[in-house]
Amino acid sequence: MRLTILGGGGFRVPLVYGALLGDSAEGRVTQVVLHDLDAGRLSAVARVLAEQAAGVPDAPEVTVTTDLDEALRGADFVFSAIRVGGLEGRAADERVALDQGVLGQETVGAGGIAYGLRTVPVAVDIARRVARLAPDAWVINFTNPAGLVTEAMSRHLGDRVIGICDSPVGLGRRIAKVLGANPREAWIDYVGLNHLGWVRGLRVAGRDELPRLLADPELLGSFEEGKLFGPEWLQSLGAVPNEYLHYYYFNREAVRAYQEAEKTRGAFLRDQQARFYDEMKRPDAAALTAWDRTRAEREATYMSENRETAGAGERDADDLSGGYEKVALALMRAIARDERTTLILNVRNRGTLSVLDTEAVIEVPCLVDANGAHPVAVDPLPGHATGLVCAVKAVEREVLSAAESGSRTTAVKAFALHPLVDSVNVARSLVDGYTSVHPGLAYLK
């Protein structure tokens, strides 16, 4: 089986390859094609993968290419993890937003909209090429903003594109652990959009154990989300939100923390990864050792500003292991081998949430088999969550419309309608700021 990874020079690619190395079952991935626009980054990542594969019998063969069409031909699965504009673009997204006093995070608020406006046209081009060159391939999208990009691609690929994210998986794992349950045996009642969802129940042997957690402030404050949001707020919600909802529930504090930070997250990662790729220019550099060291630092500082604002302290060691690569592998296994499983994925709504239309991409538990991912029926969201989901989905639709039409006016509308951008004038300034720093937004007229 052949897997093509778009964004193959990206820093997290070795996580995916590491997961593949642990799969020895029949029908496994035997060929990995890395595609990237940057040949130097491709070479660096290929060195890391070669060291990972050392001593592993029948390790998947790795090839690299800067030719997109070549990468797609013959693919059984396409894993999309591109970053349009690179980390320099992410840093610029943050700076422009913070200059206007609003959030610049890469998937939430103004930063997420800017990233989406840059990324959607590229993702749509990829989707069209996949439809033409590899019509039987399944596309697994990890490119952020994951829900928005998956929806853009689904207009050309239908249900053959599925979005993944490790946030819901990590959240469910942490809740199960603190309740003393096996995450593999728990049913996680999770629903929302990507980076905008809530765990409303965790059932073990048919019994919902979440009320027990919500009734115990000490237990509730013992894991990442409890520390981040505080037990009292979680009890008020009657649910455990995805960590990204901290940007909504504590927006002023988050913006202030980012403004006061020595570096934004994007600038930190830009500089950190630049050091790694520079180190890889030395032929004698130990590639895997350098990558492991850089990854540990990256994950330990994840959402550090939010945790500092909440007084949440350092991340637990168990939360530093990623997880999206495991979701991707489980998804590929389920489809390729008809190994039926349940995963929280980004898929078309198809009536699952009645407040959204059938084509809207949502993030919910899905039953996965050889025919793809099928969303499971869920109870309606409470009013406060419905309002946020509908508002953010409306913004995503304006982003898609602006990307398709090239309308600057529609782009302003997308910014202005977002709950974390509280002014039409600020929205206009944001569009001015982003178009001035991103050549990829020159299409907005």
Question: Which secondary structure elements does this structure contain, and how are they paired or packed?
Answer:
Layout: E1 2-6, H1 13-21, E2 31-35, H2 39-53, E3 61-65, H3 68-72, E4 77-80, H4 86-99, H5 109-133, E5 138-141, H6 146-157, E6 161-163, H7 167-178, E7 186-193, E8 196-204, E9 207-208, H8 210-214, H9 217-220, H10 224-229, H11 231-237, E10 240-241, H12 246-249, H13 251-260, H14 265-279, H15 287-300, H16 304-310, H17 324-337, E11 341-348, E12 361-369, E13 372-375, H18 383-405, H19 408-417, H20 424-437
Parallel strand pairs: 1-2, 1-4, 2-3, 4-5, 5-6
Antiparallel strand pairs: 7-8, 8-9, 8-10, 11-12, 12-13
Helix pairs in contact: 1-2, 1-17, 4-5, 4-14, 4-20, 5-6, 5-18, 13-16, 14-15, 18-19, 19-20
How would you characterize this protein structure?
The protein is an alpha/beta fold and 445 residues long. Among the domains are: 2-90 and 104-163, NAD(P)-binding Rossmann-like Domain (Rossmann fold, 3-Layer(aba) Sandwich); 168-249, no CATH class; 251-310, no CATH class. It is built from 20 helices and 13 strands. The protein has helices spanning 13-21, 39-53, 68-72, 86-99, 109-133, 146-157, 167-178, 210-214, 217-220, 224-229, 231-237, 246-249, 251-260, 265-279, 287-300, 304-310, 324-337, 383-405, 408-417, 424-437, and strands spanning 2-6, 31-35, 61-65, 77-80, 138-141, 161-163, 186-193, 196-204, 207-208, 240-241, 341-348, 361-369, 372-375. The strands form three sheets. The protein has a six-stranded parallel beta sheet, sandwiched between helices. Strands 7, 8, 9 and 10 form a four-stranded antiparallel beta sheet that branches. Strand 1 (2-6), helix 1 and strand 2 (31-35) form a beta-alpha-beta unit. Helix 4 packs antiparallel against helix 20 and helix 13 packs across helix 16 (304-310). The longest helix has 25 residues, at 109-133. The N and C termini lie far apart (44 Å). The mean pLDDT is 94. Belongs to the glycosyl hydrolase 4 family.
